[in-house]
Specification:
Length: 151
């Protein structure tokens, strides 16, 4: 069983490796509400969300290929290994930040690129970060405005 301290250490290492803010990773984990070994779904598109960061199963073919394992092994690792799960989540978040061109947009895209859905998710993540004292109050409003000014 992975302790909270061990999962936190994995999250810090993943954040450093993929150059994403650890506070955002904490915010995402709290919004997602997942846990090691958890599989939630099916989603409307037939996919499932796995582990503490609720990483979507749509990533499994790409991960299996990159890791040189079959899809069942990749699925099990993503669902049952908390360190693998947070590492993959940090990798995804890093990609989404680059894709969106902003941290706020990357948080939104981590959940969904669908207009209206992703930004609501990002606002939830930022609100959790504010509540936990990881960022200053009012950050969500200013980042939301800045994100939409870019669009």
């Amino acid at each position: 069983m992975l302790t909270a301290q061990a999962l936190a250490a994995c999250m810090m290492l993943a954040s450093q490796t993929y150059h994403v803010p650890p506070a955002v990773m904490v915010g995402i984990m709290h919004v997602e509400g997942g846990r090691v070994g958890q599989q939630v779904g099916p989603n409307s598109n037939g996919t499932y969300d796995l582990g503490p960061m609720q990483v979507n199963t749509r990533w499994i073919p790409q991960l299996a290929h990159a890791w040189g394992v079959d899809k069942k092994v990749a699925h099990r690792l993503l669902r049952d290994d908390g360190c693998v799960n947070v590492r993959v989540a940090a990798w995804i978040l890093g990609q989404k930040i680059k894709e969106a061109g902003s941290l706020y947009g990357g948080i939104a895209y981590y959940h969904s690129a669908t207009p209206g859905i992703g930004p609501r998710y990002a606002a939830k993540v930022i609100a959790v970060m504010e509540l936990k004292g990881l960022i200053k109050r009012g950050y969500a409003k200013t980042k939301n405005q800045a994100y939409y000014a870019q669009r």
